[in-house]
């Protein structure tokens, strides 16, 4: 059985690597073509390439379920075309045992993907997001899109970006008095000090007086707030760029503050259940290879895998967004399409076994 596991596992493993490489290559080229229009003096071509490279680890983990599906179709499909699966079945090897051999390499790949999801992809993506968000700030152009809004001590705070050291970029503090705006403070960067104090750099403060507008500038100033650096860093990140531990930490913080954390829960469960999604798609692939696709060409199998993968991804996105819109648990929104794949795959496997 070890030889069987090795033979089937290696075939699927190499097919997975080829599919993942092709998907990443296509994604890289298409994204480059789409983003190249943003290249200018403050965002050169080298910065764009750096951003795309930093996002590759996250893209790889995103593609693991679909690559597992297509890789299984290609790997087992090649064996079926060479009559190897026929010989294996004739030797009395049950279908579930072949499936076990096919799932083993996917489990190893999924475990490796979880390591990337937790330790490599988040930091790389956060660096990419920081480079992108700071490209306009290099020209001293402040924007109110792409960052995060926070309310603290009756003030409204906008943060364009933040790094893992706690430095904030593109900070804007809006101070209201009832329904009237009384002051806007802008700072290029802010670094944390002790005792809930932050040091603002290159600040510009605009005060709206009764009969005039007063503007002052300073190289540095002190800002007092109860907000912690780690919370501001997590708040400034996109939910999909956080690791599982960071997402869980920020969910707990939002829950303690009585704020909505469903978007972070959705991203958390999407990443945490990714290995389960890969296994579900492998079962669908197994049922297809031994069922309707057993006599198909390689091109037909790839096309079928792409179509099944697109339906699955769209279903995952649909149920996830429904959970946010309707208000049911994001866990249900993520696990429902996965369980549907499991059920369909198992029913088809039972018919062909």
Automatic annotation (TrEMBL):
* Transmembrane segments annotated in the record for this chain: 12-33, 63-81, 102-121, 272-290, 302-320, 326-349
Chief location: membrane
Membrane topology classification: Multi-pass membrane protein
What UniProt keywords apply to this chain's record, in alphabetical order? Answer: Cell membrane, Membrane, Transmembrane, Transmembrane helix
Q: Where in the cell is it found?
A: Cell membrane
The record's annotation in NCBIfam families points to: LptG_lptG
In its UniProt entry, what is this protein called? LPS export ABC transporter permease LptG
